[in-house]
Design goal:
single chain; 190 residues; mainly alpha; Four Helix Bundle (Hemerythrin (Met), subunit A); two-stranded antiparallel sheet; 8 helices; 2 strands
Length: 190
């Protein structure tokens, strides 16, 4: 139990003090950038504010990551990205398969940036992306196919080593994600 409490304390979830005991910390003190903390935070408890923060973070980072990946990706990483994109394109109505491929796609792009800090940030983004995909599960297949097309643009930009096109395609993906989150919120509120 002591070791478990140490782990929780390191993540900002609890505070242990001699002669006081252990208390649960205020949610504002939680280390929300820890992928485990974000994963433990039940998806239904993720509010609009946190979804917006995740999207804002993605907007700040992913275009640069895609740009770097366009100049640094290995041929194997580009081939892996292509295969993962095919998984997205072939998923059809299978949301679980689509989500697995989408998350893997982003992991490959982060890895292809060859920046170890961005790669670690990518782990956090993956968790947020998973919750975003669950939240937007209500969107139509046509909308998902628009995202597939935008992801294809990233693949092509990396293949052509076109950093500007990679940045533009990443921004397009983020615009579609923002639109889908807004649509999902409207559908769920009706």
């Amino acid at each position: 139990i002591r070791e478990a409490l140490k782990v929780l304390a390191a993540k900002g979830l609890v505070l242990s003090r001699p002669r006081v005991g252990t208390i649960v910390c205020n949610e504002d003190d939680w280390n929300i950038i820890d992928p485990q903390v974000l994963a433990w935070h039940a998806p239904h408890a993720l509010d609009d504010k946190l979804f917006d923060a995740i999207l804002e973070t993605r907007r700040a980072i992913e275009p640069l990551v895609a740009e770097l990946a366009a100049t640094r990706a290995t041929l194997q990483e580009i081939a892996d990205l292509e295969a993962t994109w095919r998984g997205m394109a072939g998923a059809g109505e299978d949301l679980a398969a689509f989500s697995r491929s989408d998350i893997a796609f982003h992991q490959i792009v982060y890895a292809a940036s060859h920046n170890p800090i961005f790669r670690q940030i990518g782990n956090l983004i993956d968790t947020g992306l998973k919750f975003s995909l669950e939240a937007t599960a209500v969107i139509s297949l046509d909308r998902r196919m628009e995202a597939v097309a935008a992801h294809r643009e990233v693949v092509e930009a990396l293949r052509m080593r076109n950093a500007d096109a990679a940045r533009g395609a990443a921004n397009k993906i983020l615009d579609l994600a923002a639109r889908d989150l807004v649509s999902a919120k409207k559908l769920k509120s009706n």
